[in-house]
Amino acid sequence: MAKPQGFTLIELVIVIVLLGTLGAIALPKFFDNTENAQIAVVKNIAGSLRAGVKIAQAKWRVSNEQRSNLALVGDSVSSNFISMVDYSPFGCPVQHWRVNTETNPSANNATDCRTVFLFTLNRCNSSATDCGGAQDEEFEAFYLGGGSCEYRYRPNPDYRIRYDSGSENCSVTTSGF
C-alpha cells in the first residue's frame, strides 16, 4: 500500500480561507496610517509650542518681567522690533507687533493667537512685518476668550491644540483624539 503524500483538497481550501480572512482583517490596519500620522503631527506641534512658550517665559523672567516688545530671538536693540513679542502678566507670550502701545498686553483676538503660534514655532517667514496677516498651512487660529487660543489642524479640524495665556501655567493641551 502506497503512503499518501501532500495535502488533501479540503485542507488546502481551509488554509486559503483562513489566510484570506486574516488578510482582510489585518491589511487595513497596516495600510491606513493616515489618522495615526495626523495625531502624531498635532502632538509634535503641541510639544514644540509648549517648549517654545516655556522658553519665551524663561526669557521674560530673565528680562525682569518686561511686558512688551521683548525680543524672542536676539536682543531688543538689534532686532528692531522684528522678533518682538508681548507678554501677559504671567509671562505667557500673547502677541507680536512691531510697535505696541498696550500697557497690559493680552491675547484678545485671532490675530494675536496666530502671531503667537507663528513666532513661537518660528513659522513666520517675514522679517519686516508683524505676521498678523500670515496664515499657517497646517493650523487655523481661533480666539476663545479669556486669553485662550485654539489651533485646529486643517486636515482634521477635530484635532486641536489649545493655548491658555490667561493663567500662570501658560498651558498647551491637545484634544480630539
Q: What would you note in describing this structure?
A:
The protein is α+β, with helices and mostly antiparallel strands. It is rod-shaped. The N and C termini lie far apart (66 Å). Strand 5 and strand 6 form a beta hairpin. The chain has one domain. The strands form 2 sheets. It has a 4-stranded antiparallel sheet with strand order 4-5-6-7, covered by helices on one side. Strands 1-2-3 form a 3-stranded antiparallel sheet. It contains 3 helices and 7 strands; from the N terminus they run H-H-E-E-E-H-E-E-E-E.
Q: Using DSSP, what is the number of strands?
A: 7
Sheet with the most strands: spatial strand order: 4-5-6-7
Mean pLDDT: 82
Number of helices: 3
Order of helices and strands: HHEEEHEEEE
The main sheet comes to: 4 strands, antiparallel
Quickly give the structural class.
Answer: alpha+beta
Which range does the strand content fall in? 15-25%
First-to-last CA distance = 66 Å
Assembly state (oligomeric): single chain
Work out the count of structural domains: 1
Provide the gyration radius in Å.
Answer: 26 Å
Report the principal-axis shape: rod-shaped
The stretches of 5 or more residues where confidence is low (pLDDT under 50) are: none
How is the secondary structure organized here?
Blueprint: H1 9-31, H2 34-62, E1 70-71, E2 84-87, E3 93-95, H3 110-120, E4 139-145, E5 148-153, E6 160-164, E7 172-175
Antiparallel strand pairs: 1-2, 2-3, 4-5, 5-6, 6-7
Q: In a nutshell, what does this entry contain?
A:
The protein contains three helices and seven strands; from the N terminus they run ααβββαββββ. By secondary structure, the protein is of the alpha+beta class.
